[in-house]
Amino acid sequence: MKPITTSLFCHLLLVQLSLSILSTYASQTCIWSGLGDGVSWHDAANWSPAPPATGDSVTIDAGTLLLSASTPQLNAFTMSGGTLTFTNWTTTLQASIITLSGNALFTLPAPFSDTDMSNRVSIVCDSLHIDSTSKIDVSGQGFLALSGPAIPGGYGGGSHGGGAKAYGCPFAADTPGGSGGGSGGNPQWGGAGGGVVIIETGHLQLEGKIVADGGNGTGSKSGGGASGGIRLITTTLAGDGSVAARGGGGKGTEGYDGHGGRISVSYDTAQQKLLSTPSAITFSTRGGTNKNHPGQIGTLAFTDALLFPQEFSWFGTLYLANNNWDTTGLSFKNCEVGFPPETDLHLVDKLIIENSFFSYAYAPENTT
Asked: Which of 68, 77, 195, 329 could crosslink 141 through cysteines, CB 3.0-4.6 Å?
């Protein structure tokens, strides 16, 4: 074996030092200081010691941040307070591990018209944990009054998963909620629709809330907005938090409530069954609850019935990818549930229904 020359030794040493520097950089933690413009994620002066790059970890303890373009692929994102606002439809937060605690909030800007840039909260990660004090809330941040594919007449409530002008797909809940109608010469008074949340993760641990409710009517006679869309794509999910896309309230005795939106949840059934603690997350696409003109329920779509509780208190028309629900006992209490015609419900033992409403819903929208 030939001896290593001095030149080759120096070259190898330089490579080793370079790799060491890269390794050190990859584990860098970037802390939000807000010492730049105090708002933009993309202003380098807001970060210490440097703005986040691929492989970095991010820590945010407080502040109001605006994310207007996708992040690099981060190692970890930890937010223990403050607000992160996503703007632009293509903006995505990308990290291996994302943790929200201490009243942390992900949200969107104001609702948008047909000619504005649309927005959504988009997250791609291996693991997402939202503690009981924190939430993702895009309520009233979908279609603005007089905008969207389903503008109602008069004081009508906005449509989305429910309503006379329902649109979107139950198994791909990625469309914003429609706005409500306004009164007389003030159609702009209609409540805005709910926004969109899309999460792709290996595991979702939810103790907090994910919310996409419709906005309330704002004039003396105006309809509430329909709720938005929440799409969860995960291997497994757990926790006792809530996911809701509920219609907004109509204003005055003549204003109609907004209709429910859409929530879709896909997961790996085999992996979900291996969890030591089953999911206790609740789901609702309830319509607005104005006693004069309440809104219709929206849709809830799942891989199968594995996540369904024995005591059912959810609101929504239930879609199952396998169209099959086998259960040994079932209790419906204080809820409203619809079933598309293709659903097969096989019940062994008793069925209890208390203060609840059942319906078989015909949904003309695309369900593929």
From this structure: 195
